[in-house]
Design brief:
Length: 73
């Protein structure tokens, strides 16, 4: 069987449109308003806030634990 440069058993005619090209497919149009990308994140400020939140949580946990132990005694 002579091959015409295409893989697979089916041979396509020259005048038929090709459906196997992924590059020709277009993405669907976005729905709703298109927003600009968000501003860059300052990770230093983010980490400071995260550390502060964790410290506050630890302090609150310790205070509640002390309060619970005082109630038990």
């Amino acid at each position: 069987m002579a091959s015409r440069g295409r893989r697979g058993g089916a041979s396509a005619r020259e005048d038929e449109p090709r459906h196997d090209d992924q590059a020709e497919q277009q993405a669907p149009a976005p729905r709703g308003p298109v927003h600009p990308p968000p501003p860059p994140v300052d990770y230093g400020v983010f980490m400071q806030g995260l550390v502060q939140a964790m410290q506050t949580q630890a302090h609150t946990h310790a205070a509640l634990q002390a309060q619970l132990e005082a109630q038990v005694e």
